[in-house]
Amino acid sequence: MTGADLPLWAAWLVSVLAVTGAAFSLTGAIGLVRLKTFYERVHAPTLGATLGMALILCGSMLLLSMLEGRLVLRDALIGLFLTVTTPVTLLLLARAAAHRDRHEGNPDAPPKP
Question: Which of 80, 93, 106, 113 is 20 to 30 Å apart from 13, CA to CA?
Answer without folding.
Answer: 80
